[in-house]
Amino acid sequence: MIPGQVHSWELSADADGWVVFFTPEFYLKEFPHRKLFSFPFFNALLHKPILYLFPAEQSLLIPIFKTLQQEYANQEIMRNEMLGCYLDVLLIQLTRIYKIQGIEIEVQAGELSLLQNFENLMEQHYKKHLPVSYYADKLHVTVKHISKTCKQTLVKTAKELIQERSILEAQRLLVHSELTSSQIATELGYFDNKYFFRFFKKHTGCTPEQFRNINKALW
Fold first, then answer.
1. CB-CB contact of 99 with 128 (8 Å)
2. What is the pLDDT of residues 130-153, one digit of tens each?
3. Are 41 and 49 in contact (CB under 8 A)?
């Protein structure tokens, strides 16, 4: 899951496995030359973050999870460095499996670069509610070109993607923070609370408080 992604789990009584949490800063400390969005499952615009593991793939990954768990429990010298290395191995192996399963959306190289750069810019500026023309100028393309690329590849307009990012952050804050709906509106750059509430309901089908109540109950 990408950082901040809103989620919930409904697990059966016999469910077993591992959950690995890490911050981008932790990974990038050991591998500053890499970007997390280079791993397909962290590139939210282009890829579905789901892998189905067959027995052979499970046999490959389970030892890595066990080693991560053991290393985390120990207090050996250079523990974080070792954890970072095993985490990198895990992400690389998952990427190989992902490529084999062919879950990716087919995108030409130029379009892929444009969409990745658009996602990075959007992540930095979505709270400012800037027009698509701002992103087009920064990416040195026309509004028509970026809009056409998004629509053809992702079946969504650039404006819709920006709005979805704002909604995602609102959902995250509603579930994972104690901020009021009005405070969240301000945090996201909406200084008209009524407009924010209408905007949120239009995209989710419920009010911010209804969303909070429904999803808090799942935790």
1. no
2. 999 999 999 999 999 999 998 888
3. yes
